[in-house]
Amino acid sequence: MKRMQNAALILLVSAIVGQSLYLAFRTTPRDDPGPPAAQVRVGDTLGFLSGHVEEGTATTVPLREEPGAVTVLYAFHSECGFSDDVAPVWGRHFATPDSGTSGVRRIALTRDPPGAAADYARRFGWRVELLSVSRFPDTSREHALVARTPWAFVFDSDGVLRFHDHGAELERIDKAIAAIAVDTVHRGPGQDQR
After folding, report:
1. Which element (helix H / strand E) includes 171?
2. CA geometry: angle 32, 37, 43, nearest 5 deg
């Protein structure tokens, strides 16, 4: 009897170990992960972004503008719960005129397909340009900007990323916009920002 119990115990432990190994190797990716994803950091220059508008038409959005201009990208994703949390606040933010800051261009950027992005924006009453980067590879700079959502990126008139923060930090974002607009007017186009 004791022999039978030992044999059953050994079989049971072997089955558990076998199942564990099977699960470990089954869920371990075997494919080459490919090239690393692009990253965009403060100080990086992006002259333009490519993407698709609501109708699915390809477009290029310049990030280099007249001195004093600022471009703000608001990265969101319709399947992100955190994006859902800030979306109504962004709706009010987009509807409020910029106080004391002219030349601010606001663009909602997403990896959602163009139609889904437009539906999401309408649902929350956004009055803002939309740009979908759903058709670009994960290694592109466009996808690097939508890797974290909701997130905001502030570019100066030379297309230099000067500030980024969580999308809920609208007061900090607005302060950065105002400071960047003043700074770029004073230093002029093409001058070093240090």
Report:
1. helix 170-187
2. 160
Please tell me the distance from the alpha carbon of residue 156 to that of residue 82, in angstroms, as a whole number. 27
Contact residues for 69 (Cβ-Cβ < 8 A; gap 6+)? 103, 104, 105, 157, 181, 184
Residues contacting residue 138 through CB under 8 Å, at least 6 positions apart: 37
Q: What is the pLDDT of residue 100?
A: 52
Q: What is the Cα–Cα distance from 53 to 111, expressed in whole angstroms? A: 12
Q: Which has more confidence, 145 or 192?
A: 145
Residue pLDDT, tens place only, 107-130 = 999 999 999 999 999 999 999 999
Distance in angstroms (rounded) separating the CA atoms of residues 140 and 64: 19
DSSP tag of 35: S
Name, in order, each residue with C-beta under 8 angstroms of 194's C-beta and a sequence gap of 6 or more: none
Q: Which two tokens stand for residue 158?
A: 């030379």
Which of 4-13, 15-24, 119-128, 173-182 shows the lowest mean pLDDT across its residues?
15-24
Burial readout 78-112 (b: 16 or more C-beta within 10 A, e: otherwise): bebebbbebbeebbebbeeeeeebebbbbbbbbbb
Neighbours of 13 (CB within 10 A): 10
Answering whether pTM is above 0.70, one says: yes
